[in-house]
Amino acid sequence: MADHRPELVDDALRALGATHTELREAHKRWQARLHSRSFPGGEMRYLTTLGRPESQARRQVGDLACKAVLWPLPLWPTLRFEILVAPGGAVWNEWLVREPGNPGPDLAALPSVAELPPWGCTVEEVLRGFTSAVPLVADAPSRARVGVTDPRSGDAFTVHFTWGLCQFVAPRP
């Protein structure tokens, strides 16, 4: 997220009482785990790292029946880190979602799609909040993009997400 919103990362580090050095070290440890032959894969990777999840639920995504596993986040109390687990234990998606039962922000109240708040809405909220919203091809594994036509102006935008959280909105040609 620091690629797009370094100022928000700085604010988050201050809120967590952490330094950039600690952030880099945590990232280094996570990358070492991801590439270790002995570290478990699939769902076990997250259970080992994050501990017991807050909740689990069956989720139907198209033709695929999967399991959604959610953990709370100290930095974002109304969000959850979610993994979607396919039958057999493979994780096929990981991102931030709104906590169950929380509708999130009222995106229809914004004056324009261009006003979507960085770190203020999720992929699912944008897809639900705008009838014109369509998923676009992601530009990296942890990123998502959604095309949206503003209902008021007719202008086309691409909303960019990292780990499912809005980073920025750009005009679409």
From TrEMBL:
Protein's name according to its UniProt entry: Uncharacterized protein
Species: Actinacidiphila rubida
Superkingdom of origin organism = Bacteria
